């Protein structure tokens, strides 16, 4: 980790908080702040919840969760409680609080598990079961995140490795979302053609939250075999924008010519969340296809 001054961090914060800047630059600034961490970075990220962009704000919450710093708990709590914020943003704040883990968390999640925004309610239900699972297993938070993906996942992978069994569990609408998520993360970790096809079936699930998680996982896997599923999802204009957004970003991280073609087509989608996702996704795919060393390089550009 580089040691940089607070004023350099604040400069990056200014890029993030500047609505005149293109969304892709603001995203790069955000990821740079996430990677740097610390109080000033958290402050700069927190200030940005006043912004107009739902896409950017949900990403702020996601990054705060992944930073795993309790200093972000108060702002995340206020975002979760704020019903003027879009459910996508509140959902991400709930998930981030679950990822950080805080002593008063149980009570808070119980309060929102029946929220009128279904995306928020389901997120809190999953996070509550994750907490229960941790307590029962007597597992530390760290053990939860041991997969080849660096993310803190909303559920631990199931121990089952039979793809057909996992697919059945994942698609069983009578099971809890937590159990179904566990099957989903196990399918991700297997990473075979069969497991990718099983995950693709997940787009038929009735919960939009569930479907957005499938798209998110495909983004983590960066596997070309998932492109047909993602493409179909982005092209479906009746699909929930949270799901289309994740599909767009996943396509950006896979970054083949076919991905670029579909993302370019939706750059002017009537829904801001979708078109901004395509802009950011195309920027990510440019990075994937360039020799540039670090995607989140705002530090270099604002200092230089
Ligand atoms: Fe999400
Ligand atoms: Fe997202």
From TrEMBL:
HAMAP family with a match to the protein in the record: Deoxyhypusine_hydroxylase (MF_03101)
Keywords assigned by UniProt, alphabetized: Hypusine biosynthesis, Iron, Metal-binding, Monooxygenase, Oxidoreductase, Repeat
Gene (name only): LOC113396973
Recorded catalytic activity of this chain's protein: [eIF5A protein]-deoxyhypusine + AH2 + O2 = [eIF5A protein]-hypusine + A + H2O
Homology family: Belongs to the deoxyhypusine hydroxylase family.
Name used for this protein in its record: Deoxyhypusine hydroxylase
InterPro entries for this protein: ARM-like, ARM-type_fold, Deoxyhypusine_hydroxylase, HEAT_type_2, PBS_lyase_HEAT
Primary role: Catalyzes the hydroxylation of the N(6)-(4-aminobutyl)-L-lysine intermediate to form hypusine, an essential post-translational modification only found in mature eIF-5A factor.
Cofactor: Fe(2+)
SUPFAM superfamilies named in the record: ARM repeat
Pathway: Protein modification; eIF5A hypusination
Cofactor binding: number and manner: Binds 2 Fe(2+) ions per subunit.
UniProt signal peptide: none
A Pfam family that the UniProt record links to this protein: HEAT_2
Positions bound to Fe cation 2: 212-213, 245-246
Per-repeat ranges for HEAT: 72-112
Source organism superkingdom: Eukaryota
GO molecular function: deoxyhypusine monooxygenase activity; metal ion binding
EC number of this enzyme: 1.14.99.29
Natural source organism: Vanessa tameamea
Annotated binding of Fe cation 1, by residue: 58-59, 91-92
């Amino acid at each position: 980790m580089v040691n940089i001054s607070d004023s350099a961090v604040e400069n990056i914060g200014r890029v993030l908080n500047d609505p005149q800047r293109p969304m892709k630059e603001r995203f790069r600034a955000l990821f740079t702040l996430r990677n740097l961490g610390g109080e000033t970075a958290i402050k700069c990220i927190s200030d940005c919840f006043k912004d107009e962009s739902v896409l950017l704000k949900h990403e702020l919450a996601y990054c705060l969760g992944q930073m795993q710093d309790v200093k972000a708990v108060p702002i995340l709590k206020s975002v979760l409680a704020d019903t003027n914020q879009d459910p996508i943003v509140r959902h991400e704040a709930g998930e981030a609080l679950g990822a950080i883990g805080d002593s008063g968390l149980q009570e808070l999640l119980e309060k929102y598990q029946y929220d009128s925004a279904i995306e928020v309610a389901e997120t809190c239900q999953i996070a509550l079961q994750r907490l229960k699972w941790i307590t029962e297993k007597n597992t530390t938070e760290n053990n939860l995140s041991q997969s080849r993906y660096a993310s803190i996942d909303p559920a631990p992978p199931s121990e089952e490795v039979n793809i057909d069994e996992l697919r059945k569990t994942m698609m069983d609408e009578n099971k809890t979302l937590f159990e179904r998520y566990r099957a989903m993360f196990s399918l991700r970790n297997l990473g075979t053609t069969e497991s990718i096809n099983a995950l693709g079936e997940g787009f038929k699930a009735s919960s939009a939250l569930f479907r957005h998680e499938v798209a998110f996982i495909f983004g983590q896997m960066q596997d070309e075999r998932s492109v047909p599923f993602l493409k179909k999802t982005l092209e479906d204009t009746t699909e929930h924008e949270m799901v289309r957004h994740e599909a767009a970003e996943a396509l950006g991280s896979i970054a083949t010519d076919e991905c670029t073609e579909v993302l370019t087509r939706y750059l002017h989608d009537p829904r801001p969340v979708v078109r901004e996702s395509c802009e950011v996704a195309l920027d990510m795919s440019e990075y994937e296809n360039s020799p540039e060393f670090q995607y989140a390089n705002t530090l270099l550009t604002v200092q230089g």
